[in-house]
C-alpha cells in the first residue's frame, strides 16, 4: 500500500519524464567530478541525483515548491527552497534547468504546485526568460548552463533572450516526442 | 543543509550575507549537517527558517 501522504506529495511534484532523462544524459556527459553544479527548479531531484551519482560532482538544488524540496532532499540532494536563484549568491561551474515551458492560456491555469511545474505562461517562456536574465549572477564566466526548451516555446526567441544577456546558445541534446521536439541548450558567456 | 552552504546563500530580498543560528545539528563524516535553525540577514534582519535540513529562503510574504 502506498502511503496516502506520499501519493499526495507525488501529485504535487513534477515526476521525471522525457525532458528529465534528456537533460540528465546530456549533462552527465559534460560534467566533471570537480564541478560545482546548481540545479534550478530541481523538482523530484531526479536529474540532480543522477548527476551526483554518475559524475561525483557536488550538486545543489533549488525549488520554490516545498513538496519538491522534501522529495529532492529524500533522494540525497542538498536543496534550498527559493524562487529560481533568489537566495543564491555563489559562482557555479555548471547550472542546470528543466523549466516549465508549455504555453498556457491564463484561463486554463490551475492554481497549484503542478501548475508552477508545467506552465510557462502565454508564450511558454515566462520562467525561461527569468532564468536567462538571472543566470549571469550564479554562472562562473567560464561555466556553462544546460537548459531544456521545446519547439512549442519558440527556440529562436529563447536564443535571442540569451543573446540579450550576453550569452550564446548551442543545441547539444535533442529528442522528438509527440507534438514537439525537446532540446538541451548549452549556454555560455560571450567573451 | 551542509554548513559550508553558508558561503553561497544570501538574503533573497537584498542579497546580503546571512548569519546562521543552529538549533539542531548532526556531525556527518565530512562536514556538519544543520537540521534545524535559522538564517538571519545581517543587513535587514529578516529571519529564514531551516526545517528538516532544508533552508527556506522565500521572503516572508511568499511563504504559505
TrEMBL record, chain A:
Single GO cellular component term: eRF1 methyltransferase complex
InterPro entries recorded: DNA_methylase_N6_adenine_CS, Euk-Arch_PrmC-MTase, PrmC-related, SAM-dependent_MTases_sf, Small_mtfrase_dom
Methyltransferase small domain: residues covered: 21-101
UniProt keyword list: Methyltransferase, S-adenosyl-L-methionine, Transferase
GO aspect biological process, one term: methylation
Superkingdom of source: Archaea
Entries under Gene3D superfamilies matching the protein: Vaccinia Virus protein VP39
Keyword S-adenosyl-L-methionine set for record: yes
CDD domains in the cross-refs: AdoMet_MTases
Pfam families the record matches: MTS (PF05175)
GO function terms (MF aspect): nucleic acid binding; protein methyltransferase activity; S-adenosylmethionine-dependent methyltransferase activity
Record's keyword annotation contains Plastid: no
Family: Belongs to the eukaryotic/archaeal PrmC-related family.
PANTHER family hit by this protein: METHYLTRANSFERASE N6AMT1
Name of the protein this chain belongs to: Class I SAM-dependent methyltransferase
Species, as recorded: Halocatena salina
From TrEMBL, chain B:
One Pfam entry name: Trm112p
Organism superkingdom: Archaea
NCBIfam families associated with the record: Trm112_arch
PANTHER family linked: PROTEIN PREY, MITOCHONDRIAL (PTHR33505:SF4), ZGC:162634 (PTHR33505)
Protein name: Methytransferase partner Trm112
Annotated source species: Halocatena salina
